[in-house]
């Protein structure tokens, strides 16, 4: 199954999102496989919306002729052998801190500390 011709994804963001999804699911929701790409669930302790990412193949990175492309954004073929649940939205600093009990961004250059403690509803 081909998910998309080009999928520009920041690998660290995906890893953090996948970690967050796995930890949220481990809270108290029974794990289960989704039935279709984009299926949403929020049956976890944090009520975080998670989206099903099915197994499949896609190209990650930027084409060489893309405007404003960095040299380290080469395209690679990616194969997902198992599906997983991924957070539908970025994880806020407050959500990360509440769940992981860490603040890895503290003291880093070019990182703005959040002033909002919860996501707007």
Descriptive labels:
121 residues; three-stranded antiparallel beta sheet; 2 helices; disordered N terminus; single chain; two-stranded antiparallel sheet; alpha+beta
Can you describe this structure?
The protein has a domain at 1-62 and 75-90. It is an alpha+beta fold. β1 and β2 form a beta hairpin. It has 2 helices and 5 strands. The model is unreliable at 1-16 and 22-27 (pLDDT under 50).
Question: Which helices and strands occur, and which strands form pairs?
Answer:
Blueprint: H1 11-28, E1 40-41, E2 50-53, E3 56-60, E4 76-80, E5 84-87, H2 93-100
Antiparallel strand pairs: 1-2, 2-5, 3-4
Number of helices: 2
Poorly predicted ranges: 1-16, 22-27
Helix coverage percent of residues?
10-25%
Order of helices and strands: HEEEEEH
Count the E strands.
5
Task: Please indicate the percent range of residues in DSSP E strands (runs of 2 or more).
Answer: 15-25%
What's the average pLDDT? Answer: 77
Output the strand order for the largest sheet: 1-2-5
Quickly give the structural class. alpha+beta
Name the shape in a single word.
flat
Oligomeric description of these chains: single chain
Most strands sheet: 3 strands, antiparallel
Distance between the termini: 35 Å
Using the CA coordinates, give the radius of gyration: 16 Å
């Amino acid at each position: 199954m081909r998910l998309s011709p080009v999928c520009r994804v920041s690998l660290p963001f995906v890893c953090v999102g996948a970690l967050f999804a796995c930890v949220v699911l481990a809270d108290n929701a029974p794990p289960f496989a989704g039935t279709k790409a984009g299926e949403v669930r929020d049956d976890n302790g944090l009520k975080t919306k998670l989206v099903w990412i099915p197994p499949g193949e896609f190209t990650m990175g930027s084409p060489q002729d893309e405007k404003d492309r960095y040299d380290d954004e080469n395209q690679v073929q990616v194969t997902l052998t198992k599906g997983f649940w991924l957070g539908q939205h970025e994880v806020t600093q407050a959500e990360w801190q509440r769940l992981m009990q860490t603040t890895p961004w503290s003291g880093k250059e070019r990182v703005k500390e959040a002033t909002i403690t919860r996501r707007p509803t």
